[in-house]
Design brief:
The protein has 14 helices and 13 strands. It is α/β, with parallel strands linked by helices and about 375 residues long. The longest helix is centred in the middle third of the chain and has 16 residues, at about 135-150.
Length: about 375
Amino acid sequence: MKGLRKYLTPFAPDQSGAVSMCYALGGMVVIVDAGGCAGNICGFDEPRWQPDYASSSHVGAVFSAGLRDMDAILGRDEALTAKVEEAARQIDASFIALVGTPVPAVIGTDLPSAARMAQKACHLPCIAIQTDGMHLYDRGIEEALLTLVKAFSGPGEGDGQGQRASTDRNVCSVLGWNPLDLFDPQWADAVRSFLLSSGYDEVLIPGADRGLEAFVQLRHAKRNYVVSPAGIAAARHLEKMYGIPYEVTFPADPGILMENNRHPCAEIPFPGDDLKVLVVHQQVLANAIRKSLAGSGFRGSITAATWFRLDPEFAKEGDIHLQEEDDFIELVREGGFDLIIADPSLKPMAKQYQGAWIDAFHFAVSGQAAIDHRRNIIKG
């Protein structure tokens, strides 16, 4: 049955990804809903709400618009503006973000217009992130990241009219970082350390640290590294606007993504020409693990699969976009794999599988289980 889940929990929707992108920027995020979406986001879809999760000093506030039935039905934007203005008087925010949900999508709310009204009333930059709850978290991150880049990365109107900031410092940025893919804060530190050791003077990771300032400084970048499909649209915009080249890759040892930093080659006969490996993760990270394995001399076949965005430009022949649980069950049953690298929450769907398995946690798939695993490592 299409959409039936017997093993996996529902994946986070696009509004959750948008809020996650704004989480550490010091802004005021208003989820335009009646209250239910905000509860899911704060209760389940954002790992940084966990009490022992290291978080940025720039953390902003998250509000629900708390729309009443008639407010939603009649589209009373004035009521929304009044609520936003009242909240803005009580907190110190650097900007306001209105995040769409199914309610405004169904009734056709003009979120950009509502954002302009809120900006005029609050005298703060206000952006509209046009999510609708009908897509997955990566689409929301993409929309939020691109909106933030356009709003705060610098002046310039029209294609190619932006002025790239001149600087003597060798600066790069990492686009698409988000804790739903890269849930451990140490992974952002590892990426920064790797790039600094590669010769960069400064590494910007928008959404991970430095608040909104990381977006303001993006024009200084000499190169952008895209670590998730959600960052590709922003990278293309920055290349088109400011001429900044980009590379879709994970700029660090992908072994840090796997349990106890175990390299795949330690788990299978080596080198072997007929061995088969399946990597299941977000596309860029799956590609990074595949590249690392191939670069170590492995000559067998490596298939990448993902439940989320699969950009054809960065896919190889045979890569798979998973949609239903049965897709994964059949893939494992018929694939004849010797090694699977995937989130452990997928194991119950591979009951007959006899090969090796390396855990590669993906918060968007396993949720709290990934946080519990990290907590146990810290305690252990």
